[in-house]
Amino acid sequence: MNNDMGYTALISNMQHFSTGDGPGIRSTIFFQGCNLRCPWCHNPEAIPRRPVLLFYKQRCRNCKLCVKACPSGAHGDKEGQHIFVRSRCRLSGKCVLACPSDALRLSGTVKTLKEVLDYLYEDIDFYEASGGGVTLSGGEPMLQADFCAAVAKNCKEKGISVIIDTAGNVDYSEFEKVIPFVDSFYYDLKGASEEDYRGKIGGSLKLTVMNMERLVKDGAEVTARIPIISGYNDSPAYCINLCEILKKAGVKNVHLLPFHRLGSSKYDSLGIYYPYRDTHPPDKEKMDSLLEVFKNDFGTKIEW
Ligand code: SF4
Ligand code: SF4
User: Fold this and answer.
1) Beta pairing, strands 8-18 & 52-55
2) Domains by residue range for the chain, with CATH
3) Cβ(105)–Cβ(96) under 8 Å?
4) CB 196 within 8 A of CB 206
5) Who's near 304: CB < 8 A, 6+ residues apart?
6) Is the confidence at residue 168, as pLDDT, over 80?
7) Strands 8-18 and 26-31, bridge-based pairing
8) Ligand 1: which residue has its CA nearest to atom 1?
9) Quick one: which ligand is closest to 54's CA?
10) Ligand 1 atom nearest 84 alpha carbon
């Protein structure tokens, strides 16, 4: 692990007062880059392992300040209207600084360890008062495990609790780097068959489960999180299979996360098609019925 405060990581976003990333008041660091491709992902901007520019067309006031600022001619004017030509974008970020209306955002900026820690320490009083802390999420934070370990070690020294939110598709040696400093893992289980993992999300169920089992055996606190996606895994029969996998892995707590469409505008801002655009979120009745499948064997919760 590198403890040098100038040590860097590629970060998608940093957020104070985040909800849904663990107990209490938390700050969340979203790492840039993921090795899975979940088609329902609500952070698509954090998937590429390189920076990307988001352009929120509906916020654009047509002021053209970005046209002047962009060194590569990616922003232009067509019949008085602002246009953005993504293929010309060289990710200088100069347009983001020039834009007065928050219509542009760069996901994937290089941050030093000091910058990240300074950001996290700003809310230390809130963590203490609320039983909260810090969550390392993404993208896949474990692809930058050395940096995660450095953040978590520094937080631990300050008495700040740290959760890592992972899909677990990395070599176990990456987990060994962070285990000593992390309080808890939020560990996604996204399918019950190798076919679904390989075909739908581009990962490995075998690796996911193997790492989950090893974490539990090594004494880590692991909460399994299952996204419930309408038309994919929202049947009791599918959930029984997920339940069996988690029982075998020795996990004690399961959270169900109903699919939502809040990430939809991000797909538009990236100029990519969102295949779940018309998919309806599961309703309360559906979620309650699926929770029943897990209730006898685990501590359970629905994360609305
Ligand atoms: S600077 Fe922002 S608001 Fe102005 S034209 Fe460019 S994107 Fe639109
Ligand atoms: S693992 Fe998470 S960040 Fe990666 S593609 Fe799936 S939902 Fe998105």
Assistant:
1) unpaired
2) 8-49+108-302 (3.20.20.70), 52-107 (3.30.70.20)
3) yes
4) no
5) 258
6) yes
7) antiparallel
8) 99
9) 1
10) 7
Q: State in Å: Cα 3 to ligand 2 middle.
A: 28
Chain centroid to CA 234: 22
- Model confidence at 20, pLDDT cuts 50, 70, 90, reads confident
Ligand 2 mutation target, pool 43, 165, 226, most atoms within 8 A of CB: 43
First to last CA, the chain: 36
pLDDT value of residue 19 = 79
161 CB neighbour count, 10 Å cutoff = 21
Return the residue matching tokens 């809040």.
Answer: 262
The secondary structure of 19-79 as a DSSP string is SSSSSSSEEEEEES--S---TT-S-GGGSSSS-EEEE-GGG-----HHHHH-TTS-EEEET
Strand, helix or coil for residue 161: coil
Amino acid at 29: I
Taking the C-alpha atoms of residue 147 and residue 239, their distance in angstroms, rounded to an integer, is 35
Report how far apart, in Å, the C-alpha atoms of 203 and of each of 115, 252, 275 are. 32, 24, 19
**Could you identify the atom of ligand 1 that is nearest to the CA of residue 62?**
5
State the Cα–Cα distance between residues 301 and 191, nearest whole angstrom.
19
